[in-house]
Design brief:
The complex is a heterodimer of chains A (about 350) and B (about 280). Chain A is of the alpha/beta class and about 350 residues long. Chain A has helices at about 10-20, 95-110, 115-125, 175-180, 190-205, 220-225, 230-235, 240-245, 290-310, 320, 330-340, and strands at about 1-5, 25-30, 35-40, 65-70, 80, 90-95, 125-130, 155-160, 165-170, 250-260, 260-270. Chain B has about 280 residues and is α/β, with parallel strands linked by helices. Chain B folds into two domains: about 10-100, Beta Barrel (Elongation Factor Tu (Ef-tu), domain 3); about 105-240, Nucleotide-binding domain of ferredoxin-NADP reductase (FNR) module (Rossmann fold), CATH 3.40.50. Chain B is globular, with a radius of gyration of 18 Å. Classes of the chains: A alpha/beta (about 350), B alpha/beta (about 280).
Chain lengths: ~350, ~280
């Protein structure tokens, strides 16, 4: 791994050059900070803690056509593939939790027997520039789920903001290509030490939810825990948590047709809704809210680890900030991890 | 990269109304493109996403057997928007097929064993596929004794009636057809599937039971099989679940860590005992 210094005044050139040949998506401040396409470095907000919407939506679209229909056409042209997007893209200044989420989504969309071409094309054309955290929000808990303020997982380039310069780690070959031969002067040992120390201090100061990796091995016990009823009562099944989660990947598929022209489209969906599992017969295996909350948490902390060897949570805290019922997943996880008798 | 969401085009060759209430019809489909027919290799117990452009997709078990040639058959219950629209189609209309999906019955594991096929209601469709497969001349020798126990609520709701009659005449398969309640000229058995299973009493030695039916039938049939000496490993079930993608991505058909679409729909009772009771 190459490591060096990038002067901050060089950032403008770099963004301009990238924007000339690809879509550059970076955090921009309005009322909230959100990832948006940008054309210059001036638009970018680097002092943010977490965006409201996850960067996931640039790889896995909230709504996306899979097929096109022309019901008037000859049989062989009636149903065709929707074009997949593969325009080169840079996701710039992504926090470590989100960069990590891309590697989790990769396992779902690319890791099976049937790779998803829509995700694959976008992902294959995307380079990720991570940015180490300089502060954490009260809702952050990345260190409890395997991440950290300087976790490079999922990043191609990784930046530390160390005052007048960026300390740059070239994590992957794609990151090297992104620099296109740009020289990175060697960092002073003090600079490196300052960056590493800041990240370590930040990580040490974060609140830890212990034992989350033990939920998987105790899955049967946790599933049968008596706490789910109480937890379920506090959920209003609005699914804000799922829609804002960087790792939630469930979707629905629907057909839309008007005047014989239409499309088959997939939309974000959530296991929090009773319709998600409702059979045509009327039977519903997860009719109760408590069963659905359990499904969401078990999927993230037991089933996903069983399939892919990692928890499907990056500790970004979006679900905590967005919950209209003021639920805190960390509190639920503490209860589950501890399996203590008097809880909630 | 092949697109797993793109259906293969088929044309409806035959539509057979199976039940007197017209709620179940069998659609025989022929691939539009001859190459698709060659590539579509399936085994009994698998399913496909059947789609009607503009209406949507539904996961349906395959009722045909690969031994029957290139045409595919699906027996479809009219239940919701898509299946109702499919029921209104005519011969010559187009349907999309994505598949084959799911694990299907473990033919290699069944080989050399006696097969006890137990079905109730319209869940019999994929069992029909297996029965036809096992009775095909090229396959009959690969399996031991064949027993088929099949029940419906009343005679008018029995699927594949003519075929069942043919099976009965064969002599190399024991066929027990039953109805919960007789009507009209029904001269056959009357009784619930669990009771008939007890009567027929198939031996569990070197046998595998393949059971599909409504939950109430399973609830009372599984203990009968246990009494007959079938171990949880010797009992295979095929499950239904609401599905969308059919390839383990969209996240809705799971039972605990297993996806019914890709890890199933066929599970042994032993496997199901390790999963949460959420189906």
């Amino acid at each position: 791994m190459r490591r060096g210094i990038l002067a901050k005044e060089r950032l403008g050139d770099l963004i301009r050059r990238w924007a000339g040949e690809r879509l550059v998506v970076a955090p921009v401040r309005h009322d909230t900070v959100e990832f948006e396409p940008v054309s210059s470095a001036d638009e970018i907000e680097l002092g943010y803690r977490n965006t409201r919407l996850p960067a996931k939506r640039f790889l896995f679209r909230p709504s996306e056509a899979l097929l096109r229909f022309d019901l008037k056409a000859a049989p062989e042209r009636r149903v065709t593939e929707a074009a997949t997007e593969s325009r080169p893209m840079v996701l710039f200044a992504v926090r470590p939790c989100e960069a990590r989420s891309f590697t989790l989504l990769d396992r779902v969309f690319l890791g099976g027997d049937f790779p998803d071409p829509y995700y694959a094309n976008r992902r294959g054309a995307t380079a990720v520039v991570g940015l180490a955290c300089a502060a954490f929000a009260p809702t952050c808990f990345c260190t409890s789920v395997g991440g950290g303020p300087a976790d490079r997982t999922g990043a191609d380039l990784f930046l530390f903001d160390v005052g007048e310069v960026f300390l740059v780690d070239v994590v992957s070959k794609r990151g090297e290509e992104l620099l296109a031969g740009l020289p990175l002067p060697e960092a002073q040992p003090e600079t490196v030490e300052r960056a590493d120390r800041a990240a370590a201090q930040l990580a040490a100061a974060m609140t830890v939810v212990p034992g989350l990796d033990q939920i998987g091995p105790r899955a049967e016990e946790v599933f049968g825990d008596s706490c789910w009823q109480k937890i379920g009562e506090r959920c209003i099944a609005c699914a804000a948590c799922s829609f804002l989660c960087p790792t939630c990947h469930c979707f629905d598929i629907q057909d839309e047709v008007l005047d014989q022209i239409g499309r088959r489209v997939r939309n974000y969906d959530s296991c929090m809704f009773p319709l998600f599992t409702l059979h045509a017969s009327g039977h519903n295996p997860r009719a109760e809210k408590s069963q659905r909350v359990r499904q969401r948490l078990m999927h993230k902390f037991a089933y996903f680890p069983e399939h892919f060897g990692a928890m499907a949570c990056v500790g970004c805290g979006r679900c905590i900030r967005a919950c209209p019922a003021a639920n805190d997943i960390r509190q639920w996880l503490r209860i589950l991890a501890a399996s203590c008798p008097e809880r909630t | 990269m092949t697109n797993p969401y793109l259906p293969l085009q088929t044309r409806i060759e035959t539509i057979r109304i199976e039940t007197d209430d017209r709620s179940l019809k069998t659609f025989v489909l022929r691939f539009f493109n001859g190459e698709d027919a060659g590539r579509f290799r399936y085994r009994p117990g698998q399913f496909a996403e059947i789609s009607l452009a503009g209406k949507g997709e539904v996961p349906i078990g395959m009722a045909s057997s690969p031994t029957e040639g290139e045409a595919l058959a699906f027996t479809i219950n009219r239940a919701g928007i898509v299946t109702t629209a499919i029921h209104n189609l005519r011969v010559g209309d187009l349907l999309g097929v994505r598949g084959p999906l799911g694990n299907g019955f473990p033919i290699e594991r069944l080989e050399g064993h006696n097969l006890v096929i137990i079905g109730g209601g319209f869940a019999f469709t994929t069992l029909r596929s297996l029965a036809v497969y096992a009775m095909a001349p090229e396959n009959r020798g690969r399996f031991g004794r064949l027993t088929v126990i099949y029940g419906a609520r009343r005679p008018g709701l029995l699927l594949y009636k003519e075929e069942l009659e043919e099976w009965r005449k064969r002599g190399d398969v024991e066929v027990a057809i039953t109805v919960d309640a007789a009507e009209g000229e029904w001269a056959g058995r009357v009784g619930f599937v669990p009771a008939v299973t007890q009567e027929v009493a198939p031996a569990s030695d070197n046998a595998v039971a393949l059971v599909c039916g409504p939950p109430i039938m399973l609830k009372y049939t599984l203990p009968v099989l246990a009494d007959l000496g079938f171990s949880p490993e010797q009992i295979l079930l095929s499950l239904e679940m609401r599905m969308k993608c059919g390839i383990g991505i969209c996240g809705r058909c799971n039972i605990g860590p297993k996806y019914v679409c890709k890890d199933g729909p066929v599970f042994s009772l032993a496997e199901l005992k390790d999963l949460p009771q959420e189906y």
